[in-house]
Specification:
The protein is built from 8 helices and no strands. By secondary structure, the chain is an all-alpha fold. Helix 2 runs antiparallel to helix 3 and helix 3 runs antiparallel to helix 4. The two termini are about 30 Å apart.
Length: about 140
């Protein structure tokens, strides 16, 4: 199976980056403007409002592949903070305290921060993808 999928690895990674970035941005848009889901927006000056702005902005940057390493690093840190502030006090295990999504996003974005924008990204269109990877080394 490895030989079959190996040649598609850059494209599978790009799909992972795009989909996870868009999903994360939707969490932010739900907090900031109440869409999708029809929930009331939270005040922007609140902790949840700042988190929503970060999620929307970083999610879009990750999905577009525009300085995705930096955006993903910030998003990873936000999810680590969110986990410890909102979930960890309700139990040790993420499955018990309903923090598994925060943990998954944290480590997924840490991986994206290390790997960079990759193919199908704005950075790769302007030749910045390799430069960004070199900065992280």
């Amino acid at each position: 199976m490895n030989h079959f999928l190996e040649k598609y690895s850059p494209y599978i990674y790009a799909i992972l980056r795009i989909v996870s970035g868009l999903m994360f941005a939707m969490h932010g848009s739900q907090k900031v403007i109440g869409i999708p889901g029809g929930k009331s927006p939270v005040p922007l000056a609140s902790l949840l409002g700042v988190g929503g702005i970060l999620e929307l902005g970083c999610g879009l940057l990750i999905a577009l592949g525009l300085v995705a390493s930096y955006a993903a690093f910030i998003a990873s840190g936000e999810m680590a903070v969110a986990y410890f502030m909102m979930h960890a006090s309700h139990g040790f295990l993420p499955i018990v305290n309903q923090g598994e999504l925060a943990v998954l996003y944290c480590f997924l974005f840490l991986y994206i921060a290390a790997r960079g924008s990759g193919v199908w990204s704005i950075d790769s269109r302007f030749g910045r993808s390799r430069a960004m990877s070199a900065v992280l080394e």
